[in-house]
Amino acid sequence: MICKTEAIVLHTTRYGENRLIVDTYTREHGRLSFIVTVGRGGRSSIKKQYFQPLTLLAVDADLRPQQQLQRLRGAELLSAQLSLLSEPDKLAIALFVAEFLYYALRGEQQDSRLFDYVRSSLEWLDKRPDRYSNFHLVFLMHLSRFLGFYPNLTFHSSSPHPSNSPLYFDLRAAAFCATPPSHHDYLMPEEAGRIRPLMRMDFSTMHLFRLSRAERARLLEVIVRYYRIHLPAFPELRSLPVLHDLYG
């Protein structure tokens, strides 16, 4: 089946001298992997630089459901990401986000809202000149809404509980609780109290939330742990130490 779709490049692996295996998330077909022959001449319509992490593409593909690797017939840039892959700080965020999405979207089916969220977030970051150090925190927490485990920010209990009493946060249930759960995957009240402010952040207001390097590093640690609980076989991320070095 010949089709055209928008795609976000997640990961690229060299395969032989002039071929690539390109993992993408597409707007119309969800997760797809392509085998791509990269032309060496300047006139080639498929250029190697198109397949950098998080590049936004319009692709022309020959899709065959029985095949794991699809054939890419043509590709062109959806938008020119002038700073995302050239400025060192943004590049560190981009490489982390690309690696994170590569695993988080491993089994994702078609979801145009999810695709549009990722695309608009990347375009926002590319155009933003400054004050984006909390981008990855906001992006990951709001991404959970599309993956089915967005935190429940309300507290319901059948037993009386004073409104000003501290609450724990159960990472497995993605909900607040009055007493510690029987397992170890929960946050103590001091850290649980940061969940609601974190979820109120968006890209336009996140610079108003002052975080130290240590606080930002701890929040990212919790978020990654939260994803590992809800997504099976989520591995250690190689790009995480670089992001810690830059942003805490």
Describe this structure in words.
This protein is an alpha+beta fold and 248 residues long. It has two domains: 1-78, OB fold (Dihydrolipoamide Acetyltransferase, E2P); 82-248, Up-down Bundle (de novo design (two linked rop proteins)). 33% of the residues lie in helices and 21% in strands. It contains seven helices and eight strands; from the N terminus they run βββββαααβββαααα. The protein has helices at 88-104, 112-127, 135-147, 189-192, 195-200, 213-230, 240-247, and strands at 2-14, 19-26, 30-37, 56-62, 69-77, 168-170, 175-177, 186-187. It has a five-stranded mixed barrel with strand order 1-2-3-5-4. β2 (19-26) and β3 (30-37) form a beta hairpin. α1 (88-104) packs antiparallel against α7 (240-247) and α3 (135-147) runs parallel beside α6. The longest helix has 18 residues, at 213-230. The chain is globular and about 65 Å long.
Largest sheet: 5 strands, mixed, barrel
Mean pLDDT: 90
User: What is the molecular shape?
Assistant: globular
- Helical percent range? 25-40%
Low-confidence runs (pLDDT<50, min 5 residues)?
Answer: none
Distance between the termini: 47 Å
- Assembly type of the shown chains? single chain
Number of strands: 8
The name of the CATH topology of the largest domain is de novo design (two linked rop proteins)
Task: Find the structural class using helix and strand composition.
Answer: alpha+beta
Number of helices: 7
- Strand adjacency order, main sheet: 1-2-3-5-4
What radius of gyration results from the CA coordinates? 20 Å
* CATH first level of the largest domain: Mainly Alpha
H/E topology pattern? EEEEEHHHEEEHHHH
The appropriate CATH architecture of the largest domain is Up-down Bundle
